[in-house]
Structures are given as structure tokens and as C-alpha cells.
Amino acid sequence: MIRLSQKGWNNVMIYTVVILIALFIGLPEYFKQGRNEPQPQLVSANQTLLALHFPQHQIERAGPNWRVQPAVLTDEELTVLLLQWQQAALPDQSPLNPVNPVLITEVSVWLTGKPAQQHWQLYQAGEYHWLNAVDAELWYRLPAGQADLLFPAVLR
User: Fold this and answer.
1) Residue 106 CB neighbour total at 10 angstroms
2) Cβ-count burial of 88 within 10 angstroms (0-12 exposed, 13-18 middle, 19+ buried)?
3) Label partner for 96 (CA 20 to 30 A): which of 31, 63, 71, 72?
4) 3-state class of 68 per DSSP?
5) Three-state SS across 8-61?
6) From the CA atom positions of the chain, what is the Rg in Å?
7) For every residue of 107-148, which 3-state class applies, written as one string?
8) 69: DSSP letter
């Protein structure tokens, strides 16, 4: 056995604890970065968007085309909006909920393969926009500008 003084053993224990803490904190982060998992999408790649129902406006698929009731978007704006919803990645789920959020608008999203719609609510808390998955009670802080792409002012 190694002969160390009391002070020497204390130093060994301190360094061991520091190394273990670094491993427990660093390894999960390392493995998380190593995996190239795609970020979750608002609309999964294996589903098709069928309709978006805002409080005052409905966007629905009519055969191969889309229509807005009442018509407040041009065809180009509608195409951009639909692409945003189909390609938008969800940010990481926020560990904290927003403080004093103010509801701006909400939308019901109808997808193929889902028996019921998904409910999303857009909130503002301070300078940030938050997306709430109503059915799952999950909060996502949106990157700057994404709220305006997913929820255009004319549809709010």
C-alpha cells in the first residue's frame, strides 16, 4: 500500500472528487454534441400539413392548392408561411417557463396521421417570444424573428 501522510491522502481525495465531477458534467455534454440528432420539427418529416386554424383565419389545403379564409395573404406570402411551418425546427425546450407571459395568438395545426389537432400558443414575455405546446405543456423560447415568420401580423 502507498504510504502517504494525512495531508497527502486529503489531496488525493480532493483531486479524485474534482475529476469525478468533471467526468459527470463533461461526458454527457460531450456525448450530446457527438450525436448528430436532428432537431425536432414543428411538423415532423413523416407528416403532411393539412390546415392551420388561427382565431380569425383558416388556412386549408384544397386539393393541390391552399386557401386562406378570409383572404389576407398573397400566394407568395402563403407559400412562405407554409414552408416556415413545415421546415421550422423547434428550439431546445426551455427549463424555465416565461415570467408574466402575455398571450398574443394561438393556432390549431392539423396533420396527417394525427386524430386531433395540435394546439400552439404564442406568448410574449419581455423582449422574447415563447411558443407553448398546449397539449404537452412545453415551453420553447423562439429565436428572434421566428415568431413573425410563423405567426404573421395579419393573422394575429
Assistant:
1) 17
2) middle
3) 31
4) strand
5) HHHHHHHHHHHHHHHHHHHHHHHHHHHCCCCCCECCCCCCCEEEEECCCCEEEE
6) 24
7) EEEEECCCCCCEEEEEEEECCEEEEEECCCCEEEECCCCHHH
8) E
pLDDT category of residue 33 using cuts at 50, 70 and 90: low
Whose grid coordinates read 502517504?
4
Sequence letter at residue 46:
N
pLDDT category at 38 given cuts 50, 70, 90 is low
Tell me phi and psi for residue 49, to 5 degrees: -75, 130
Contact 109, 121 (CB under 8 A): no
Distance, CA of 2 to CA of 25 (rounded, Å): 30
